[in-house]
Amino acid sequence: MRAQFVLSEIGVGLRRNLTMTFAVIVSVALSLGLFGASLLMRDQVSTMKGYWYDKVNVSIFFCNKNDADSGANCAKGAATQQQKNDIKAELARLPIVQKVEYESSDQAYKHYKEQFGDTPVAGLVTPDQLPESFRVKLKDPTKFAVIKSAFSERPGVQEVQDQRDTVEPLFNLLNGMNIAALVVMALMLVVALMLIVNTVRVSAFSRRRETGIMRLVGASSFYIQMPFILEAAIAGLLGAAFACVLIVGGKYVLINNWLAKKIQVINFIGWDSVAAVLPLVLLIGLLMPALAAFFALRKYLKV
Length: 303
What we know:
With 303 residues, the protein is α+β, with helices and mostly antiparallel strands. The chain has helices spanning 2-16, 18-53, 81-93, 105-116, 144-151, 164-206, 208-216, 221-262, 271-300; strands spanning 58-62, 97-103, 133-138, 157-162. Keywords: Cell cycle, Cell division, Cell membrane, Membrane, Transmembrane, Transmembrane helix. It is a multi-pass membrane protein. Pfam families: FtsX, FtsX_ECD. The chain crosses the membrane at residues 21-41, 179-200, 221-254, 274-297.
């Protein structure tokens, strides 16, 4: 009998405040959708970092005959074979080095043509202008400073370059977008909480006579508050369900059917990442409105 009464009160409350309830659902859906998207974007950035950092190398470029005026290291002209052998031997002794590969000027020119073959700048470079280099694969890509400090001032070395510098701006951009999404999500959550509090306040005010009678006949505070809390929880859960639909739809349409086909060099997150986020979104959608309603009732439910 009590459960039937509580359910009937929930239905009455939702019907009386239909517009505000709908606003709560939409606000919760958008805010939790952004929350889930932010978590997935963070996983995507971590996945991309692991993928690209595992592939990038440290490049030790040697002086060639055109670099005599480019710095003190190249003042004596092109690097000698003995200098290259000494550097390779030292690299082999370093515990942080996993693999060392030699790239000749002709190989560098071939890679250059593969990258810029269809562009106007392709004919501006000749093989003798591209330096020889060692491509150093590190066990830990963050240890680039060790290689740079050890070899950047060596005679015959034109430059020590960390290829992570070419992909770092992309990761910084993605991290910035993630922070922006979190800020918007926080603002949306504040709006949703304000709507929930106002909805509970209006609902409690419209039913103050019924709650007063319940208090007179001995109903407990928790029993009186339960319909209002469940109304907010149901609205929040519906919003969280819509947020899950947005997240799944975004993964299927935006990533699987568009980005994955347009950008094939990126290892995008899978459905396992989405499946890990959805329960958290549903849990927050259920608990956040219920707790907001509980604390709002302590102030506004005066019977």
